[in-house]
Amino acid sequence: MSSGVAEIALRRDRIIVLSSLAVITALSWVYVSYLASGMQDMGMEMAMPRMQAWGVTDFALTFVMWAVMMVAMMTPSAAPMILMFAGVNRRRQKQQVPYVPTSVFLLGYLVIWAAFSILATAAQWGLHTVSLLSPMMVSTSPVLGGILLLIAGIYQWTPLKHACLSKCRSPLGFVLNEWREGRWGAFLMGLKHGSYCTGCCWSLMALLFVAGVMNLLWVAAIAGFILLEKVAPAGHRMGRAAGVLMVAGGVVLLGLTLWGGMQPEMNPGTESEPGMESEPGMGSM
Question: 282 in a domain, yes or no?
């Protein structure tokens, strides 16, 4: 009976955790969609910084945007780890170990992404200051876009990326190696897992500036790729293949920019094209 009761409690916990994560993710996407539609319809008049110098309010509102977007993008990919924590925590309760709410672990995880959001906001402020972003927060410089693609693509092949992705792809291994007792321990576990996820995905988040931070299709595409990279059986190989494509895209973008800059500019009126010389007598007409 005790085993059956424990399984029922575990199943109930999974339903509660999954439902909570689904609600959090859905609300975050609703907010991001609201901001995106507001920018498109009202020219950034809805809670987004204008194309003038930022103030404290502009920075704070942009931080909120990034923080909510990170919740929307990263919560689904963190779900396996959160469910693993909840399951192990519930089983340990049978051994008379005090139960720690899963929300404590989730809070630690989201704190790391909130810290990342501060850095992203600062990066956006810097790009805004030098006029490298459009009102829709798209890079106005092909060179910047190409460099971001190159960085993201190369990073996909680095040992640091591989190490962080391995931690994200192995929830059970993380729990066995990083378990901490109590609420503070759960919070620290959330911080550590969030750090691994940030180490895995920061360069992909930088790609938001390539096609637009408020381009919902682009945001959803990156979030979907992150999810597949973490949970798909061949996710690590998929990530490396995507890295090759990113590098290729960056090289093409930079190459086209360089080629365009090398083309001579036509100066109308200085030289006439071949075959366009005036025929004799045409000037007297």
Answer: no
How far is 148 from 209, CA to CA, in rounded Å? 8
| Number of separate domains in the chain | 1
Report d(CA 275, CA 206) in Å as an integer: 51
Has residue 268 been placed in a domain? no
Q: 149 CB contacts (<8 Å, ≥6 apart)?
A: 207, 210, 246, 247, 249, 250, 253
Dihedral sign computed on CA atoms, order 226, 232, 236, 242: negative
Q: What is the pLDDT along the chain (285 residues), one digit of tens a residue?
A: 456 655 676 777 788 888 999 999 999 999 999 888 876 654 444 334 445 678 899 899 999 999 999 999 999 999 999 999 988 887 777 777 788 889 999 999 999 999 999 999 999 999 988 989 887 788 889 999 999 999 999 999 999 999 999 999 999 999 999 999 899 999 999 999 999 999 999 999 999 999 888 899 999 999 999 999 999 999 999 999 999 999 999 999 999 888 876 665 555 554 444 444 444 444 443
Distance of CA 186 to the CA centre of its chain: 25
Per the domain annotation, does 8 fall within a domain? yes
Residues counted in the chain: 285
CB atoms within 10 A of CB 7: 11
Q: What are 202's two structure tokens?
A: 């920061």
What CA–CA distances, in Å, run from 198 to 52, 173, 247, 261, 266? 31, 18, 21, 36, 48
111 part of a folded domain: yes
**Is the separation of the CB atoms in 68 and 48 below 8 Å?**
no
Euclidean distance between CA atoms 160 and 173, whole angstroms: 18
- Please give the model's pTM, rounded to 2 decimal places: 0.83
